[in-house]
């Protein structure tokens, strides 16, 4: 059974940085993405990194967040810099065997449990 486990969340001041990790077990996924969900809001796309090709980012995080993967460790990362209070949310790792470059949660079969990121002074 495939499983995703996130880590790296926490409390950080505005302008600070955090790096999230997502370890996949059970198989290697073509697509590994990051979504986030703030209280009272829908889950939204943040970034996608496939095995091949360029990464994709939401406009709100372009230039500040970087998605990467270490295939040897079967792990995806989300480096978050210049964090803003509006980045506060639960961040989820999502994965799928497909290569559709989707920004929709419904297109990802596997999900992690989420990790809280809070940006506050």
Distance between the termini: 40 Å
Structure annotation, total helices: 0
Report the radius of gyration as a whole number of Å.
13 Å
Helix content bin: under 10%
Basic shape: globular
Q: Summarize model confidence as the mean pLDDT.
A: 95
Beta-strand level of the residues, as a percent range? over 45%
H/E element sequence: EEEEEEEEEEE
Instruction: Determine the structural class based on helices, strands and strand pairing.
Output: mainly beta
Give start-end ranges of low-pLDDT stretches.
none
Overview of the structural elements:
The structure is a single chain. This protein has no helices and eleven strands. The mean pLDDT is 95. By secondary structure, the chain is an all-beta fold. The protein is globular and about 40 Å long. Strand 4 (31-37) and strand 5 (44-50) form a beta hairpin.
Question: Concise description?
Answer:
This protein is mostly beta strands.
Secondary structure layout plus pairing:
Layout: E1 3-7, E2 10-12, E3 18-25, E4 31-37, E5 44-50, E6 56-57, E7 65-70, E8 75-80, E9 89-96, E10 110-111, E11 115-119
Keywords:
0% helix, mainly beta, four-stranded antiparallel β-sheet, seven-stranded mixed β-sheet, 121 residues
């Amino acid at each position: 059974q495939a499983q995703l486990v996130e880590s790296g969340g926490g409390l950080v001041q505005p302008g600070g940085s955090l790096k999230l990790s997502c370890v996949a077990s059970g198989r290697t996924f073509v697509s590994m993405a990051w979504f986030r969900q703030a209280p009272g809001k829908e889950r939204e796309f943040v970034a996608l990194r496939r095995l091949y090709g360029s990464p994709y980012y939401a406009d709100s995080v372009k230039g500040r967040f970087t998605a990467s993967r270490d295939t040897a460790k079967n792990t995806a990362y989300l480096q978050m810099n210049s964090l803003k209070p509006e980045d506060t949310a639960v961040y989820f790792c999502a994965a799928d065997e497909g290569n559709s470059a989707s920004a929709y949660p419904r297109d990802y079969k596997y999900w992690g449990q989420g990790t809280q990121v809070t940006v506050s002074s």
